[in-house]
């Protein structure tokens, strides 16, 4: 059995929130019900993927706001919000508002870079400024300063009888800056995140450096250690150096025969892409972990990337049904989590 001398401290899950375009309300309601179930099962966090012009959640801030009114304890996050699609000031306002509504439970994961399929959307997304938009780390630095409450302008105070203006983003939510995460898939991004006061989200996709052997777990371990070294060198406080790992796990303890067959087919179809680096950037994918909770726990404890963390946000498979997610989450909370030394919130 796994070594439980190093128990898992925080257990979360990540969902894409798929929906039928002919009936999107049902899919969004399913996502909210899954988050409610997560809270009842004692999960520490629920995370939402961010998808644009697809049939997944395009506005996780709105979904988190809704979920905040149907839950009381579970933390809510994005993994990740691509800032290339966002106005940093407006996003700072929306996240701060949602964090206030949630009582300080929001964790925002971020990334930078050009929006996916940039040439197909730039004329509608930035019709007047596409050629000069800055999609570098500067964009997320600006967003973080706004969330932290740094001044936006010199102007503030009363104007007339009613109007009163602030020089910072309002509402200001103290503590939200410390709950910003960066989704880093490369060593460069991990080092940048560590040196700039962001927590680290490390997922099931990474980009090796030149010369790296195509060993996902070893590269992830190296990136996490580089992140921590950079954070320590910059004097970042420990509360800003949290690391979460996000692999796909599919426990089958209580699954029906039909579910097990479907799950195995899903994994078999995705496994070939893990055999070698993909594309010009040599992207590496982690293998999906399927089996009983005991079998998955054994694999995790042997995974040197997992050995570096004490919190996870296991990713739910993209294309399953609501009842499948109920079974998987229940097995994670009641079997896999305890096998990793975790105890549900409130236990």
Task: Describe the protein in words.
With 347 residues, the protein is α/β, with parallel strands linked by helices. It has one domain: Luciferase-like domain (TIM Barrel). The chain has ten helices and 14 strands. It has an eight-stranded parallel β-sheet with strand order 10-8-7-4-3-2-1-14. Strand 1, helix 1 and strand 2 form a beta-alpha-beta unit. Helix 1 packs parallel to helix 10, helix 6 packs parallel to helix 7 and helix 9 packs across helix 10. The longest helix has 18 residues. The two termini are 23 Å apart.
What is the string of SSEs from the N terminus onward?
EHEHEHEHHEEEHEEHEEHEEHEH
Rg, Å, rounded: 20 Å
The tally of helices reads 10
Low-confidence blocks of residues: none
Q: Specify the CATH homologous superfamily.
A: Luciferase-like domain
**Largest β sheet strand count, sense and barrel closure:** 8 strands, parallel
Considering DSSP H and I runs of 4 or more, what fraction of the residues is helical? 25-40%
Residue fraction in strands: 15-25%
- What gross morphology would you assign? globular
**Architecture, according to CATH?**
Alpha-Beta Barrel
Strand order of the largest sheet: 10-8-7-4-3-2-1-14
Structural class computed from helices and strand pairing:
alpha/beta
Identify the CATH class: Alpha Beta
Q: Which whole number gives the mean pLDDT?
A: 96
**Record field, number of beta strands:** 14
Query: Roughly how many Å apart are the termini?
Result: 23 Å
Tell me the number of structural domains: 1
């Amino acid at each position: 059995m796994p070594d439980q001398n190093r128990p898992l401290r925080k257990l979360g899950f990540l969902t894409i929130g798929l929906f039928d375009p002919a009936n999107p309300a049902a899919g969004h309601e399913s996502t909210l019900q899954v988050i409610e179930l997560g809270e009842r099962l004692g999960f520490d966090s629920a995370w939402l993927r961010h998808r644009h012009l697809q049939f997944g959640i395009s506005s996780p801030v709105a979904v988190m706001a809704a979920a905040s009114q149907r839950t009381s304890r579970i933390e809510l996050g994005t993994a990740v919000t691509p800032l290339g699609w966002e106005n940093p000031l407006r996003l700072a306002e929306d996240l701060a508002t949602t964090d206030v509504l949630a009582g300080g439970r929001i964790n925002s994961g971020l990334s930078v870079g050009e929006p996916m399929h940039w040439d197909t959307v730039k004329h509608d997304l930035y019709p007047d400024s596409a050629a000069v938009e800055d999609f570098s780390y500067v964009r997320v630095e600006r967003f973080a300063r706004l969330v932290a409450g740094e001044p936006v302008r010199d102007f503030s105070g009363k104007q007339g009888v009613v109007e009163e203006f602030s020089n910072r983003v309002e509402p200001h939510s103290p503590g939200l800056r410390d709950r910003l995460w960066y989704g880093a898939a490369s060593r460069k991004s991990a080092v940048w995140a560590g040196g700039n006061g962001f927590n680290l989200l490390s997922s099931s996709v990474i980009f090796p450096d030149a010369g790296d052997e195509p060993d996902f777990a070893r590269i992830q371990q190296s990136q996490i250690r580089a992140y921590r070294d950079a954070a320590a060198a910059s004097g970042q406080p420990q509360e800003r150096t949290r690391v979460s790992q996000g692999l796909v796990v599919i426990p089958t303890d209580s699954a029906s025969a039909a579910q097990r067959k479907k799950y195995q087919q899903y994994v078999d179809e995705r496994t070939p892409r893990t055999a070698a680096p993909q594309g010009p950037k040599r992207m590496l994918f982690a293998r999906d972990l399927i089996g009983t909770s005991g079998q998955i726990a054994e694999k995790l404890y042997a995974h040197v990337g997992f050995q570096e963390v004490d919190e996870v946000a296991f990713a739910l498979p993209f294309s399953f049904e609501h009842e499948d997610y109920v079974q998987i989450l229940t097995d994670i909370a009641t079997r896999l989590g305890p096998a990793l030394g975790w105890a549900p919130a409130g236990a």
